[in-house]
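Entry 14. Structure prediction run on the chain below.
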Amino acid sequence: MAYGFYLDSSICSGCKSCQVACKETNHLGVKNLWRRVYNYQGGSWEQNEKGTYIPKDVFGYFVSVGCNHCDAPACVENCPTGSMTKDPVTGIVKNDPETCIGCQTCVTVCPYGAPTYVEELGISSKCHMCFEEVERGRTPICVATCPMRALDWGEIDELRAKYGEGNVEVEPLPAASTQPCFVMNPHPAAQPTGQGTGSVVSFDEELAFV
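Output returned:
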């Protein structure tokens, strides 16, 4: 009964409601985000004979991603204290703040950058799929607040049956080496992981203030 997330990147508007709702609900400090909305853009502009700049192969799309509660989570496998655990029933990956020593191994090994280091507490923190809400029969806050209904959540097998296998190996995401419980319908302009010609726009600058 492992749970997972679904994203329809083709209709994601990049409004970041999911990102903001997650941050506010979990009282996350500056530089700590459990869900991130990436703005991936590429292409160039060229000047025509009239001196007007016109787009050349310009593209852009958004990817919203949190912890993917992977079937083979690198954070769990490499945590030296056993602080990172994966629930055998729900598949939710959690970090225990009582046993976390703040070594940041999880931060380093997660290909999705899901765990973040909380400097003021000296520990790592990450998306826990709003497990308390889930236990009450509700959905994670990021899914509940998406105005475009680009996000969905549920048992991963049901999500795949409903939406298909999709493709999560698109820029700026990594190769799916940890077997993420994540299904995505890519944007039509999406480029394959490792073959992209664009870049993530303004995320580092944004993170400094949120």
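The CA atoms of residues 34 and 127 lie 5 Å apart.
Filed with the rest of this week's runs.
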